Task: inverse folding
């Protein structure tokens, strides 16, 4: 599953119908997860009973698949009992085999970002077990949302990551251009289709170029690290925090790359067992930076700045941007705070 | 283990918190096993409101002078005192009358004012030090157990201080404020309920009151932009939190417009 080994790339054109039938055939070994129509013009990633329920033309979802099925909102880690002495009862990671289909490039990049956190220097057993048992089938975007800016940070609209996912689909009217990226997918995928030649690849490049031109939101990312460090006291932080920011943490919750978590203990009412579980934490929560004797980010402006700079300014953490340009934090902010607008406001005063 | 002495005191409220505490929640037998109910009006008329108490739970808003006096005595007799329910924590429904002059409110309800001695409604922590807040209307079950177990084990209780939005997103609900354009108070409301209303596709009405440092004015501005009328915005912010700084700021902003 990890992208350490390189494979000979297989590129085939498969009719959509045949591909969906193949997905159905996976159902006996895998849990099939994909975008489903919800209500209004919204879709959600959910387990589906058959490929007929899939809504592959979706634009975006509120919650990303990576933070629903790999890094879960709530994870029970262990229970301990205190009867004189402490006994620990660890909860083994549960990993069902699952296949997530229709993941857009931004969300694949977000999963690769989560990998850096949970499969980096310290491996998280729960995340690792799920990641190993998950097949990711990505789908290149066919339309650009109002708040998408992935082209500016190099995370879309077409996927170029070397590895870490299993298959890549590109929409070709009645067919999918299927590119196989992992050995597991190669073994599973039995469809012949017709081989993709130079013409098809040129058509794919043309499609990508056409998509690049559709973006309504862009951002200049050169030298952002330094610009943010130099503008810690810029008035835009205080102004946005006062007029708009509710510190409700919606941005953090919908962000596909936000990985901060909190460990909590819940004691049973008979005082015999304590369950320790992990759940998402949010840097907009006032208690996030609270330590003994004080709080690093008492002010709302400081918390807002923490979110924006972690997404756009701290590339020294993992060598890539913390944002994948999916625009979810803009879409789902109740007051419409836009991190690209904040960045532009700061860049205004910077000599180019 | 000796049972801890528990007192449950009621001021101006519907007594729903006592009812919830005595009958409704999931762990009534365990609570009865660990605590000695010295005084709780919901269960018995016989109890004596005299201390000392290991834990005192106080429900209701303070709306008369004698209540404040009694509360201070109870504080002196109790090791730990928790405010339970929205009325005691933030003022709740009785605090709606904080939006009008006291005499006006009295006149609207009573013909003869000679025996009425009401004062401005305030939460419990306006008069005495409080060791923790069990928020909600009815109170959050998890917070109630947290308070009780913290007293039993002698540790500091841990109550959530973040917004309802976090709980709502953890549940995977589609945001009703943005997707359905409903005036949801979730972004400024303290968590604890498990995002009950948004999970049922209803807008949150802030029965848990504002979270710490909530930005009421910014949300009021958003409601205004959504086309909610001035009166409705004021009602939303004064339904439970009329006596809180966070929501009063929002109401003041709407008045000034």
Result:
């Amino acid at each position: 599953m990890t992208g350490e080994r390189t494979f000979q790339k297989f590129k085939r054109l498969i009719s959509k119908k045949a591909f969906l039938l193949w997905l159905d055939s996976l159902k006996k070994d895998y849990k099939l997860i994909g975008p489903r129509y919800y209500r209004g013009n919204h879709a959600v990633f959910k387990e589906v009973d058959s490929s007929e329920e899939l809504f592959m033309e979706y634009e975006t979802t509120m919650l990303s698949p990576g933070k629903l099925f790999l890094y879960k909102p709530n994870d029970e880690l262990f229970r301990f009992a205190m009867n004189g002495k402490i006994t620990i009862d660890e909860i083994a990671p549960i990993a069902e085999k699952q296949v997530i289909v229709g993941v857009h490039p931004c969300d694949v990049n977000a999963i690769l970002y989560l990998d850096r956190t949970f499969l980096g220097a310290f491996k998280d057993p729960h995340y690792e077990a799920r990641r190993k048992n998950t097949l990711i089938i990505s789908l290149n975007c066919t339309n650009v949302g109002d708040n998408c800016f992935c082209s500016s940070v190099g995370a879309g609209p077409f996927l170029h990551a070397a590895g870490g996912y299993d298959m890549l689909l590109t929409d070709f009217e009645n067919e999918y251009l299927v590119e196989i990226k992992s050995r597991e997918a190669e073994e599973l995928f039995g469809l012949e289709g017709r081989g993709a030649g130079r013409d098809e690849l040129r058509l794919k490049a043309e499609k990508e170029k056409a998509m690049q031109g559709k973006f309504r939101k862009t951002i200049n990312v050169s030298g952002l690290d330094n610009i943010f460090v130099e503008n810690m006291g810029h008035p835009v932080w205080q102004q946005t925090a006062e007029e708009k920011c509710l510190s409700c943490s919606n941005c953090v919750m919908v962000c596909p790359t936000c990985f901060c978590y909190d460990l909590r203990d819940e004691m049973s009412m008979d005082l015999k067992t304590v369950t320790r579980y992990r759940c998402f934490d949010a840097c907009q929560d006032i208690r996030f930076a609270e330590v003994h004797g004080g709080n690093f980010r008492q002010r709302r402006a400081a918390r807002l700045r923490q979110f924006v700079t972690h997404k756009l300014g701290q590339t020294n953490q993992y060598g890539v941007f913390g944002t994948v340009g999916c625009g979810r934090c803009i879409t789902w902010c109740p007051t419409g705070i836009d991190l690209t607008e904040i960045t532009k406001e700061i860049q205004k005063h910077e000599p180019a | 283990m000796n049972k801890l002495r528990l007192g449950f005191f009621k001021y101006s409220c519907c007594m729903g918190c006592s009812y919830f505490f005595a009958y409704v929640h999931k762990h009534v037998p365990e609570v009865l096993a660990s605590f000695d109910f010295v005084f709780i009006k919901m269960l018995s008329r016989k109890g004596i409101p005299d201390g000392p108490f290991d834990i005192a739970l106080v429900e209701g808003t303070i709306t008369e002078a004698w209540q404040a006096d009694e509360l201070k005595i109870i504080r002196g007799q109790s090791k730990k005192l928790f405010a339970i329910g929205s009325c005691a924590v933030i003022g709740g429904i009785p605090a709606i009358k904080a939006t009008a002059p006291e005499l006006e409110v009295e006149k609207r309800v009573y013909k003869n004012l000679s025996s009425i001695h009401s004062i401005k409604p305030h939460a419990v922590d306006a008069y005495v030090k409080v060791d923790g807040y069990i928020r909600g209307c009815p109170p959050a079950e998890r917070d109630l157990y947290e308070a009780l177990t913290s007293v039993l084990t002698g540790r500091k209780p841990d109550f959530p201080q973040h917004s309802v939005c976090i709980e709502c997103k953890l549940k995977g609900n589609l945001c009703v404020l943005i997707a359905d354009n409903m005036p949801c108070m979730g972004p400024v409301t303290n968590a604890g309920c498990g995002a009950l209303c948004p999970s049922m596709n209803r807008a949150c009405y802030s029965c848990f009151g504002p979270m710490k440092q909530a930005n009421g004015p910014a949300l009021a501005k958003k409601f205004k932009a959504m086309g909610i009328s001035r009166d409705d915005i004021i009602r939303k912010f004064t339904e439970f939190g009329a006596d809180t700084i966070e929501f009063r700021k929002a109401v003041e902003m709407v008045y000034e417009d």
